[in-house]
Amino acid sequence: MDGPPRSSRSRLARYHFLERITLRGMDVARVADVHTGRRQEAIRAPVKHPLELTILRCGLLDADRSVIHPGDDSHKRVLLPVPAFLLRGERTVLVDTGLPPPAAGNPHGLEESYGTDPAWIRPMVGEDERIDRQIGRLGLRIEDIDLVIGTHFHFDHAGGNALFAGKVPVAVQEAELAAARESDGYMPIWDAPELRFEVVHGDWSPMPGVEMLFTPGHSAGHQSILLRLQDGAWLFTIDSVYTEEHWRQNELGAVTDVSAARDSLQRLRDIAARESARVIFGHDIGQWESLGMAEGESSVSFR
Ligand SMILES: [Zn+2]
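Above: the input record for the complex with zinc ion. Below: its predicted structure, written as tokens.
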């Protein structure tokens, strides 16, 4: 007697469920073969809310090269773009809030308000590059944002947090909030009366297609972002990797914890390889322009 064909049950048992992801606009289950470890994808259905990424221009920093290459004593100047990211899908999420409003339209704004040294870093931010103006250009008010995510609370990432006080919560890693409260390495711009924090721990996801990765090292509770757009995966290193040059040379930038920063960098490399991701660096002016953010362009969107 012939034996029955391999039942679907036994075929299913060969696979171990890994995660649900978005791939080319489809909701996909990613599984692994329990024997070989090989990954496979099983399509489920079209995604209801395809994710849209908008990169927002929040000004530039004119900085001494040592700011991004610690120990460099050439005193050359570098231009660093300051981005924020609007993610529209199942919810409307803003990642980072740009430079502090006193810097907008005033290259001496940081010096005057916070005593920073312009020889070290000088902001170049137009009035209309404040985060509220930037989302306003896209037809959104502060209250239209469901959630703000702080990748970390340095002044070029959390400068506009106060604009969201009493209106929109700010999600932040517990370690980052503790560090910002305790350390003098943070300008007092990340907090404001009535600003509500949603404290998160480790990797998490605010909505389908968006994975926040806990990548400490640059700061105590730094986060990077993995997006799954219809055209594939995008990995935003944020300040774990400042530029393509750092990535190529496996060079760390300014860090508070060298061994954590090394681990985070390796983790980002592994994820980039696994996902065949497009890698976007934290402050890379060349890449910024190649993304369509040449002079005069205030935002650019991808799906
Ligand atoms: Zn930064």
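Notes for the reader.
The longest strand covers residues 52-64.
Residues 55 and 85 are 5 Å apart (CA to CA).
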